[in-house]
Amino acid sequence: MEGQSLRGFGSRSNPDLFRTDTHCLSRGAGLAETSLQIYSFWEHTVMKQTIYKIIAVGIGLLLGSIAHWLVEAWWIGYALSHGVPLTLRHTLGSACYLPWYVEGGFLLGGLAFGLFLGSWGWRVVYVEKRRGK
User: Fold this and answer.
1) pTM
2) Rounded Cα–Cα distance for residues 90 and 107 (Å)
3) Closest-CA residue to 60 (of 116, 20, 6, 100)
4) What's the CA gap between 89 and 98, in Å, rounded?
5) Bridge partner residues of 28 (DSSP)
6) Ordered per-residue pLDDT tens for the chain, 133 residues
């Protein structure tokens, strides 16, 4: 790659990135350089997929926390208006008036939703290339 800059690597200005080894070799690129380009493309795709799924899991946990807050607020209002005694529990490092299994259910439900959202979203956007029109 003497005399060439890497500024256009991975963009439309670098047509060798998506060509097969035989096309790259016929244009003067070495086998090691072609393998590096293919590996770099694959590495960025795996990294992008991992970050995409981590963000989706974070969104799922956030939605699970919001649902937990709404249900707990409803439960406190219901218990106070109907004279049901409230018991404060410390579960998962926070104070909560709901039973531990309900709090854990919201956490696991949010985690499961985030995993589903990440896998489904990746498949729709990047594999099937379905986008809203």
Assistant:
1) 0.62
2) 15
3) 116
4) 8
5) none
6) 444 444 444 444 444 444 444 444 455 555 555 555 555 555 667 888 888 899 999 999 999 999 999 999 999 999 999 999 999 988 767 889 998 899 899 999 999 999 999 999 888 888 887 777 6
Query: What residues contact residue 131 under an 8 Å CB cut-off, 6+ apart?
Result: 125
Contact indicator for 52, 121 with CB cutoff of 8 Å: yes
The set of residues, in sequence order, having a beta carbon less than 8 Å from that of 62 and lying 6+ positions away, is 110
Q: Where are the alpha helices (DSSP H) in the chain?
A: 21-26, 31-82, 100-122
For residue 34, give both structure tokens: 């072609």
Distance CA 78, CA 117 (A): 33
Q: What is the pLDDT of residue 80?
A: 94
Whether 28 contacts 94, CB under 8 Å: no
Residue 95 DSSP SS3: strand
**Nearest of 109, 88, 97 to residue 69 by alpha carbon:** 97
